[in-house]
Amino acid sequence: MGNISRLTGWLILIVAILPASSSSAFLPQIPTFAAFTPGKGAAFPLSPNVRVLVDAHNGLIGSPTAFDFAETFRQDLISVTAYTHIPPVQVAPHAEGTKSNPVIFITINPKLNFTLFNGKTTNEGYQIDIVQHTVTISATAPIGAWWGTRTLVQQAAVANDSKQITFPSGRIVDSPGWEVRGFMLDAGRHWFDTSFLSELCTYASFFKINELHLHASDNLWNPAFLYGDGNEGWKNLYAAFRFRPPGGSALSSLVPRKNESWTQTDFLALQTNCARRGVTIVPEIDTPGHSLVINQWKPQLMENGQPDHLNLSFPETIPTIRSIWDEFLPWFQSSEVSIGADEYDASLANDYISFVNGMSDYIQAKSGKSIRIWGTNEPSRMLSVSKNITIQHWNFPGDDIPVRLMESGYEVINSEQTFLYLDGKTSEGGQFPQELSQDLIWNGAPGGKGWAPNIFSASDPSNNTNVANPKLRGSIMALWNDWGNNATTKLEIYYQLSRSLAVFAEKTWAGSEVRETGLTRDQFDAVYPILNAAAPGQNLNRVVAPTQGNIIYSFPAPHLPSTTSVSSVGPPYTLTFSVTPSSHSPDEGVLFAGLDSTLHVSNLTFEATGQLYSLGYTLPQHKYTTIAIHATREYTYAIIDGNTEDRRYWTTLMDIWGDFMALGNMSFAAPAQKIGANGFMGDIKDVVLRLGD
User: Fold this and answer.
1) Range(s) of the domain holding residue 501
2) Which of 92, 271, 496, 671 has the fewest Cβ atoms within 10 angstroms?
3) How far is Cα 53 from Cα 65, in angstroms, rounded to an integer?
């Protein structure tokens, strides 16, 4: 659902002060479209009786089809405009609207031509022609038409006053600067369910992001556990493999945490849901480094003294890795997969390169898919990585310099950590920010210019390339979860990604100082809150409209257990209640439960994303205790019996690579759906859930 309700009262003000863009009467949006040529006629009014029609000749071809995208577009228009109904999508040979029946017509025209910055043809471009009663979205493929609908939905969102939305007459012509515009999520060290991942796809798609790279196997890195003399702690160090093989599979023991894994049915549904929003899932199974989970399963495959490395010369190793891909390749709908292949033993360069090239050939022969690897400089005088493999650069000087790679004939994706890395909750020594650095993205390139996928270095222009380099495929930003499951909730991960994805989308679609229509930083800052709140098809902000003033609900004396109509409320919020537990079971049961979190009686423990976070407070018996829980996106704390001098924060303790322990605050969505559940005995009264900390 759209999140526009919380903006009522100030939305019109922000739209009014947005600076005019070079796109004439169009308001700034994210990302900026390439060009608009004003027409001479009247503007197109978007009204509730608008009809969305699809070209009958080509509209039902493909998967998803233009018709599929059109139906999602119709639903999204309802979301951002607050119109209660727009007629169902229909097919038609042609379309011409009237004053009483305006039309948005989506047509697929293979004769059109759209190009990337490097001149290569792309099927992601689109053209929008606007006259008084008809808007026509034309593209060479359904995906291009889909991105055209994102332009119109965003314009409707920023112009929305629930009365009159108009699109100025003229023609928009637009296409992305680069083919790869993605984000990577480390799901190997942090569990994410597919419903959350699907919501992330939906949100990212609104900004024309087209890939979600899922890093689906990995382990925590703790040298004492991994490499200590005579230490077998590696056997119990957290490691995960997220694809769950079917029952009876020879790979069953590869997945140590069945409840933290995706079934084939779930993963296929995730890919389908993301594809319906224009986002491709690119799965990664990381080998031959980062392979502790495989060695915990089959220790004989381990490189001596390196429990997280595979011994590539051991006869069983490569057949075992191939068997894993044999099992899961049929699951994957993408044309490319990642085999990881970073941070392996440089002294075994020849073994490494032979493995990478062999896996490329094997996966291509089995499935027709090509592979990507993380950039890793393996110093061999005999062998080289095949140029059929895309290199995902991430680090200087840890991998080959990307400009040299491209000059040598390799295709490269830019994931340079200086600009594009985040880490869940914190990073060692503050190396990475909590969201992409706005200073770096807008003016951190050489000469004070903005970042774009052709920029790999903030200080050395010789390490950067031209936007037109044909070997530069694009860029993927990355969010790692080095500290594991307990460091963050899934919604805290969204908080880190939400703004970052939007600014990244602007720079990977429109470039930086490449197009005159590109956004300024001030324009981005003004329009982003509107678009974040309006983004349709998901509710990652967990917005719930208040029933009166800022009150979500109020229950002076709820009958326990009680169920409300509200599943979860995102911060900032305040949840106030008075409670007295029964002397028969003072530490049992649940005070509040919801979609994203649960508050247990015992030690006032929050549960979120499968982890427990205790406040360490025992509720006294035989008396009421008043508790006020305050939450923002940065913290959650409790005030007990009105003592504002004693704020008690829910925290987590993170092991930073075995070097030191770091304390971090936790942010929880309000558990709003159930009150006094799971065997709670006692009384809860004066429950009030309100917006604002």
Assistant:
1) 180-513
2) 92
3) 13
